[in-house]
Write a structure and sequence with these properties.
Layout: E1 3-7, H1 13-23, E2 27-31, H2 35-47, E3 52-54, H3 62-76, E4 81-84, H4 99-127, E5 130-137, H5 148-168, E6 173-181, H6 199-212, E7 217-221
Parallel strand pairs: 1-2, 1-4, 2-3, 4-5, 5-6, 6-7
Helix pairs in contact: 1-6, 3-4, 4-5
């Protein structure tokens, strides 16, 4: 059974990606900080007939993240796809960006992504196959002043993901970047009256990118 590791798994997009891949006979490894939340998500997926397991880890704790991914690989016999989608944390406007409020964003989006990728990439290179999917907000593609610190860190991740795809394509490995510029249904911080997009609809884009490898980047905008 192939397996996908979802880093930063939550009850909206992460759950939907797990469900879509699981419905295509993937095992699902869920990685996030809250063990209680992961257990609830795992139970929901298992009730739907999807093989899922939880591996708690704080993505800002790099050794713990590597250990979780190693545990997931051992549990499922390997990781065939990685999806990386951390939460943004505290967002600061561009004029208020400091080293102190930028650093956590870099930890989440850059250091965490590099750590997770390096944990799974050697096995993918040995197999000559694999998928790496990275999620950011649309400000990584279209700079938005109110997402100053988050957009800066996410733009760096975007650049790295696109370069990864170019470097890894000859090795049989696909790297894709998804930039989300819409509110996902159920997002607590969504503005009043904002129209949310069903996370299941977004998750199907990830499956299409995984299967078709038709483009290295997909911008979801209203």
């Amino acid at each position: 059974m192939p397996a996908i590791a979802i880093v930063g798994a939550g009850s909206r997009l992460g759950l939907s990606i797990a469900r879509v891949f699981g419905q295509h006979d993937f095992g699902v490894a869920l990685i996030a900080r809250s063990e209680e939340r992961l257990d609830a998500l795992t139970a929901r997926l298992q009730a739907e007939g999807i093989t899922a397991a939880a591996f708690p880890a704080d993505i800002m704790n790099r050794p713990a993240l590597v250990a979780a991914l190693d545990g997931a690989a051992g549990h499922f016999g390997g990781i065939d796809a990685l999806e990386y989608s951390p939460t943004t944390g505290d967002i600061t406007g561009v004029l208020d960006v400091t080293v102190e409020n930028l650093q956590p964003q870099v930890e989440r989006f850059c250091y965490g992504a590099v750590t997770a990728t390096r944990a799974v990439l050697p096995a993918m290179l040995a197999a000559g196959a694999g998928t790496l999917l990275f999620t950011t907000g649309a400000s990584s593609v279209k700079p938005t002043p109110r997402f100053g610190n988050a957009g800066l860190a996410q733009a760096a991740l975007r650049s790295w993901a696109l370069n990864l795809n170019s470097a890894l394509a000859p090795e049989g490995i696909y790297a894709g970047h998804v930039a989300i510029g819409v509110w996902i249904s159920g997002t607590p911080r969504a503005p009043e009256g904002a129209r949310g997009v069903d996370p299941d609809d977004i998750a199907r884009i990830y499956w299409d990118l995984h299967t078709t490898r038709s483009q290295a980047e997909y911008l979801i905008s209203s």
